[in-house]
Design goal:
The protein is an alpha/beta fold. It contains 19 helices and 25 strands.
Length: about 550
């Protein structure tokens, strides 16, 4: 069996101008980055913005497991299958972060014969968007420390600076640092730390902005800390928004690439779903909807995280109206949720499958609560037995949800035709989008709504630090902001060890971060880290490049 990178490197790609032409994009509306990737200019949006929207299809999943679910692979494969059925289609994905690429995952461009290409470029630097986010974020951090050094006319309290630095790499040693050491000329000593770049509020702002003007307005609202008298200090107060926007002007433009079957793919923006809002950019989604009859997009991790934020944040901000949702699962992952160890996944175990199905059942309930038609896609593995697949189909029928097997990893679009047909039928139904909470509710009411309705928590508790954070947010008159939960992706709860469908648990909120520019609050639950660490054997150790420039090890 060929590896993902072998398949990608053997593919015959079309010039990006030819791919763009299938959507009606004109050559002068592209800014090429080589032969096979390009930025789409604002001129394209201005030309098509008044056209009717196509059908928006969201792909989400159960809570992820070490067995893998293949959500991105299904997204790509579904797009290819819809194209095989004669539909004008595009897909929209997030950009991979270097942190997980070199840490655990080894790449995030799909898999097998359902990938976006050029795979190596997309996984490694791409068009530089994440680097632009990193630089803009750290420019603001540098201006904060320079303000302290140069007289601190705003009275910024060094003990209450909330704006950390960022790096697009998993590096636990940078979570807590001290800056400004070395004497008076080296700055003001204070505690600081790093988050991963894709958790930056700048990344969220980039993905939620609909124009350069909106981008600057949102950047100016970023809160970097508090004065000695408790007043907020913003990026606007530091006059940083213009320079930050300058660094982001090209990053704001959607990226266009292609799948292995030449379906146009917008890959733009990369916020994580466990510590950010987990969706690609509004600009890419809106553009794709104007250019295609079907736009297939994904939201990160399970439906309790990515899909909830897609609906409650992205759809609310952008006015999007999804027509159908695909929930991805595998027999292997369901058995893991049912208590089987990874070493035993190759053995048939109907009891574990049925027990683990509870996780899928809850995610189906979650998606249906938003009022959007739902289809379950089982990403088929060679070890799945007919009895296991029959049981999965029977259990799905019991929920009244359409079910389709997917073989898009092995067969590309041809392996997703059944799924595509069922998605087309689902998208013909009436979708009445509703939200988990209302904007006029208090932060605690919004958090409770998500915890109880989506996670299934019995209680929500707040640490003393979280209570102080909420008091400060209330005093600033910002209770109306949306909520972007930071929670482990591995469980419906805030404890990654609680698999399946846990109940009776308490969700603990440790702190609540203010992301005023993005327009949401970030409750930090459990032991979630905004700067991940590398595993014992990072994926980077298996990567290499030969003298001819051929890369290996990216899956």
């Amino acid at each position: 069996m060929h590896s993902d990178i072998d398949i990608a490197q053997s593919a015959q790609l079309k010039p990006i101008t030819a791919v763009a032409a299938t959507l009606g994009l004109e050559e002068h509306e592209l800014e090429p980055y080589g032969h096979y990737k390009a930025k789409v200019t604002p001129a394209a949006w201005e030309r098509v913005k008044d056209q009717p929207d196509g059908r928006l299809i969201l792909v989400t999943a159960i809570n992820p497991t070490p067995a893998g679910e293949g959500k991105t692979t299904i997204t790509v494969g579904l797009g290819q299958a819809l194209a095989r059925l004669g539909k004008k289609v595009a897909i929209a994905l997030r950009e991979p972060s270097l942190g997980p690429s070199f840490g655990v995952k080894g790449g995030a461009a799909g898999g097998g014969y359902s990938q976006v290409v050029p795979m190596e470029d997309i996984n490694l630097h791409f068009t530089g968007d994440i680097h632009a986010v990193t630089t803009a974020h750290n420019l603001l951090a540098a201006l904060v420390d320079n303000h302290l050094q140069q007289g601190n006319v705003l009275g910024l309290d060094p003990r209450r600076i909330t704006w950390k630095r960022v790096l697009d790499m998993n590096d636990r040693a940078l979570r807590h640092i001290v800056v400004g050491l070395g004497g008076k000329s080296q700055g003001v000593p204070r505690e600081d730390g790093f988050d991963i770049s894709v958790a930056s509020e700048v990344m969220a702002i980039l993905c939620l902005s609909g124009s350069l003007t909106e981008l600057k307005e949102r950047l100016a609202r970023i809160v970097v800390g508090y004065t000695y008298t408790g007043q907020v200090v913003t990026a606007g107060d530091l006059k940083a928004a213009g320079a930050m926007a300058l660094l982001l002007k090209d990053a704001l433009k959607p990226n266009l690439v292609q799948t292995l079957e030449h379906v146009p793919a917008f890959v733009h923006g990369g916020p994580f779903a466990n510590i950010a809002h987990g969706c690609n950019s509004i600009m890419a989604t809106r553009l794709g909807l104007k250019l295609a009859d079907y736009l297939v997009t994904e939201a990160g991790f399970g439906a309790d995280l990515g899909a909830e934020k897609f609906f409650d944040i992205k759809c609310r901000v952008a006015g999007l109206k999804p027509r159908a949702v695909v929930i991805v699962a595998t027999v292997r992952a369901l058995k893991l949720h049912g208590g089987v160890s990874k070493a035993e996944l190759g053995r048939e175990n109907l009891a574990a499958l049925e027990a683990g199905f509870a996780n899928l059942e809850k995610q189906v309930e979650n998606v249906r609560s938003f009022g959007v038609p739902t289809v379950v896609a089982i990403n088929r593995f060679p070890t799945d037995t007919e009895q296991e697949l029959d049981l999965t189909a029977k259990l799905c029928a019991g929920l009244g949800v359409p079910f389709a097997l997917s073989e898009v990893w092995e067969r590309g679009g041809a392996g997703g035709l059944e799924l595509a047909e069922k998605v087309i039928q689902a998208a013909k139904q009436t979708a009445k989008l509703s939200f988990v909470y209302q904007e006029n509710q208090s932060p605690k009411e919004k958090i409770a709504a998500i915890a109880h309705k989506i996670y299934g928590a019995a209680r929500v508790e707040y640490t003393a630090e979280a209570e102080r954070d909420l008091e400060a947010i209330h005093s600033l008159g910002l209770d109306h902001l949306l909520v972007c939960m930071a929670k482990t992706q591995y469980s419906l709860s805030d404890n990654p060890a609680l698999l399946g469908r846990p109940s009776g648990f308490t969700l603990t909120v440790r702190q609540v971060r203010l992301s005023a520019g993005a327009g949401f609050l970030v409750p930090i639950t459990g032991q979630i880290m905004t700067m991940p660490g590398l595993p014992k054997h990072p994926a980077a150790l298996d990567m290499d490049i030969d003298e001819k420039g051929h890369i290996k090890g990216l899956f």
